[in-house]
Each structure stands twice: as structure tokens, then as C-alpha cells.
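Structure in, sequence out. Go:
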């Protein structure tokens, strides 16, 4: 089968950073489904795993396959699979500890997959899994926001509203949780995109965010979801969070975070990492499949929309290097999807 892999961790400008390869068809384990991949999306985690790293200069003899956003059709199942059968259309983000989805056929544990939204094609659906799961877990599990509107009217600041996760978080916060949504963006295009997705107010994350919020009449906000530079925004978040408020972050800090800034407010800080359930094989792994099915329902009901903003065809090493370069530029809006072999 066709696949795209890497033998060495290299800058994306190097043509050998991602190369076209041929691999054997994988065989499903007991809980695995084998998916004929029709479309994939690229995320910042892809570029981080691919990037050069100290101590890994020596080329590998076998290719490493990346990729953690896919949509396709089930073509085979393991003997213990209960929720899927050949012919089912699925979408998922998968497991970072296993080979990724830059391949024509891909194995994923059935508990991590959801049924494709009936109203979407593979290309539109591939944009949703990783960012949808991250945003859902951050809002409704880490921040503890109600999915049934019990927190309606409360305020949330989404830092990085136009990115992949931000594009889903803004929609979920506005249309599911019914919060007052303030989202950060720094360019006209990203501001317009974020407004269309449901943000009530746009603030500029190139300026101190606590001051930006005050200009919109908010001395504090009840929740903050930080999808950008955690270190850069930490002091502003500590100033802006309401007493007993909650902050969630997804971007690694470079320096120790002064958590004591949150003490007087009894404020909470939590990390969100979408791969926690699959990496540690938690007892509730199946929750990710359930969330994807819920997202699919909301898409089909018109509550949520796909965040695909650019499509590259076909799926090959050259187009993946282009997508990685775009992600690394830091200026992407929504999601980049590759479709077809």
C-alpha cells in the first residue's frame, strides 16, 4: 500500500523529511478496524513529531508513519470488534503511540473511532476529529462546562480562536454551551473566520489580553481556553480569570508557571492532551468514540460545521511537506486536509 513516512527527523524544506513509501497491508488486532483512508488532516502535532531533535540524527532502517486525523471506510475488523463492520464510514484521530494515518490503509482501535457525519464527505469530515476531541475534552471535561446549557451566559476567552482547535472550541462554546464567547485573533482574515464561527467579540492576542478584555467591558471571564503561547499569556490569564474560575491549556510551557498567581482567586488550571486516553489505555477509552458520534450528530443537525479551509490533492509526500510548512508558518486558519491517492 502507498504511504508517506520518514527515516530521519529533518526540516520540512528537505525533500527527505517526508517521502513516498510502500508498506505491507496491516492486520487488525482484536479491537482494531482496518480503514481504507480517503482523507487526512494535518495538525501541529504532526510537525512537532517530524521536526529535528537532538540524539535522533541517525536515519532509521524502517519508515515512521505520522498522521492523526483520518476519514475513510472500514474494510476489515478484528475478532472482538463490536461497533463497526466493513462498509461503515468512520472518522478518528487515533493513537500517537501507533503508526499514523499517512497511509492507504490504517489500523485504529474501534473505541477511538466514530461514525462519519452523514451530511459530510470524507474531506470535510477529516478536519474534525483531533480538534473536535481536544475542544470537547477541554471545555466539557477539563473546564467542567455543562453540555446542556446550565452555564449559559457565562463568559469564556478562547486564545487562538482561528486555529484548528479554536475553530471547534468557538462553535462548541457558543452553540452547545451557550456561553458569551470572546476569542483572540490578530489578523483581519482570522478575525472574520472566528466571527463567522460564533465569537461574540474578537480581541488581539498580540496585545495584553487582560487589557483587551477590559476594552470590551470584561474585567474578568469565567473560563479561559489557551491554545497559543502559554508562557506569553500566563500573567494576563491570571489577571483576567474570575475568582473560582478555570483555565485550560494545550501548549507546553517553556518555563515554570507561577501557579501562585491563581491562589488568591482559588482558580483552577488544567492541561488537555487528546492522546491521554489512548496512550495510557484508560478505562474510558471508548469515550472518544462516543464524543465523535456526538459531534457527528451536531454536524448533521446543523449546529456545528466542518473547519476545513484548504484542500490539497492527492495525498503524497510533496503535498504533505507543503501542509507541514503551512502549519509551521503559524498563519493557518481552520484545517488543511489532503484527499485521494
Amino acid at each position: 500500500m502507498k504511504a508517506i513516512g520518514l527515516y530521519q527527523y529533518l526540516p520540512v524544506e528537505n525533500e527527505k523529511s517526508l517521502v513516498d513509501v510502500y508498506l505491507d497491508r496491516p492486520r487488525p488486532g482484536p479491537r482494531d478496524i482496518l480503514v481504507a483512508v480517503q482523507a487526512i488532516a494535518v495538525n501541529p502535532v504532526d510537525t512537532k513529531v517530524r521536526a529535528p531533535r537532538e540524539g535522533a540524527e541517525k536515519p532509521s532502517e524502517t519508515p515512521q508513519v505520522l498522521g492523526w486525523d483520518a476519514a475513510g471506510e472500514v474494510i476489515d475488523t478484528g475478532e472482538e470488534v463490536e461497533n463497526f463492520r466493513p462498509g461503515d464510514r468512520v472518522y478518528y484521530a487515533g493513537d500517537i503511540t501507533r503508526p499514523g494515518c499517512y497511509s492507504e490503509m490504517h489500523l485504529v482501535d474501534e473505541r477511538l473511532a466514530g461514525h462519519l457525519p452523514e451530511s459530510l464527505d470524507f474531506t470535510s469530515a477529516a478536519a474534525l476529529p483531533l480538534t473536535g476531541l481536544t475542544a470537547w475534552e477541554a471545555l466539557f471535561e477539563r473546564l467542567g462546562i455543562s453540555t446542556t446549557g446550565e452555564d449559559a451566559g457565562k463568559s469564556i476567552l478562547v486564545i487562538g480562536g482561528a486555529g484548528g482547535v479554536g475553530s471547534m472550541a468557538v462553535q462548541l462554546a457558543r452553540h452547545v454551551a451557550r456561553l458569551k464567547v470572546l476569542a483572540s485573533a490578530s489578523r483581519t482574515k482570522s478575525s472574520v473566520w472566528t466571527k463567522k464561527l460564533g465569537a461574540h467579540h474578537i480581541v488581539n492576542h498580540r496585545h495584553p489580553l487582560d487589557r483587551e478584555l477590559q476594552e470590551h467591558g470584561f474585567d474578568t471571564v469565567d473560563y479561559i481556553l489557551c491554545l497559543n503561547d502559554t508562557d506569553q499569556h500566563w500573567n494576563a490569564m491570571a489577571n483576567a480569570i474570575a475568582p473560582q474560575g478555570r483555565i485550560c491549556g494545550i501548549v507546553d510551557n517553556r518555563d515554570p508557571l507561577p501557579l501562585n498567581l491563581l491562589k488568591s482567586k482559588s482558580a483552577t488550571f488544567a492541561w488537555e492532551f487528546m492522546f491521554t486516553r489512548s496512550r495510557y489505555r484508560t478505562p474510558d477509552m471508548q469515550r472518544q468514540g462516543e464524543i465523535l458520534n456526538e459531534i457527528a450528530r451536531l454536524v448533521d443537525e446543523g449546529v456545528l460545521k466542518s473547519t476545513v479551509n484548504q484542500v490539497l490533492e492527492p495525498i503524497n509526500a510533496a503535498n504533505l511537506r507543503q501542509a507541514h510548512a503551512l502549519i509551521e508558518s503559524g498563519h493557518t486558519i481552520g484545517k488543511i486536509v489532503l484527499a485521494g491517492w
